[in-house]
Amino acid sequence: GESVGLHLPTLSVQEGDNSIINCAYSNSASDYFIWYKQESGKGPQFIIDIRSNMDKRQGQRVTVLLNKTVKHLSLQIAATQPGDSAVYFCAERGGNQFYFGTGTSLTVIP
Amino acid sequence: DSGVTQTPKHLITATGQRVTLRCSPRSGDLSVYWYQQSLDQGLQFLIQYYNGEERAKGNILERFSAQQFPDLHSELNLSSLELGDSALYFCASSVMGMNTEAFFGQGTRLTVV
Predict the structure, then answer these.
(1) A98 closest CA partner among B61, B57, B68
(2) pLDDT for A5-49, tens place per residue?
């Protein structure tokens, strides 16, 4: 099966600093990637997506970088806020389904 | 509020039983997805329906089945339940297929005892 893994299970950052969450994927044929945020007791929330024909995509305070050479995806959060504390998942579309990473727990220290 | 409604929020049932989880997608969304989230396996894609038809299948057990009705709501049926089926079950919906933003419901927490 597919393998989507995260380099770090937990990440703590100071409020105001930038956060970088990493994800490795295994299927070089995957053509679409999504980052989700999941707060405690809630369902995953779409943050940003990127297609395989792009290297970078920016949203509001978030940037996703895709490096297809090393099959690596990252999520950058600028000026991290306490409300950003959550678990972040990456997901890749391989074939006709999505494969999710196990998640990175981000804690923002006030 | 994502606009996706799942019922019930919590469900406790015994091994061997059968349960039905219900999902109402966002207004206008044609695709419905079901996911299972457990502590040891993370988020696993189960199945997708698009406008009433099965579109994609993931790691869904044969004991599980789903359907999407003409009004686009969906049900996930879990039968012959085992302790290992205890998990959060999420429904998500999107306007079109798998390359569009999906919105998740709050989930149904199933506990099999």
Answers:
(1) B57
(2) 434 489 999 999 999 999 998 888 898 999 999 998 889 999 999
* Burial status of residue A32 (CB atoms within 10 A of its CB: 0-12, 13-18, 19 or more): middle
Please name which of A41, A6, A1, A25 lies closest in space to residue B90, comparing C-alpha atoms.
Answer: A41
Residues of A in contact with B92 (CB under 8 A): 43-44
Q: A101: which chain B residues are within 8 Å (Cβ-Cβ)? A: 42
* Burial class of residue B16 (count of CB atoms within 10 Å of its CB; 0-12, 13-18, 19+): exposed
State which residue of chain B sits closest to A98, comparing Cα positions.
B45
Q: State how far the Cα of A36 lies from the Cα of A101, in Å rounded to an integer.
A: 10
In A, minimum Cα distance to B35 occurs at A98
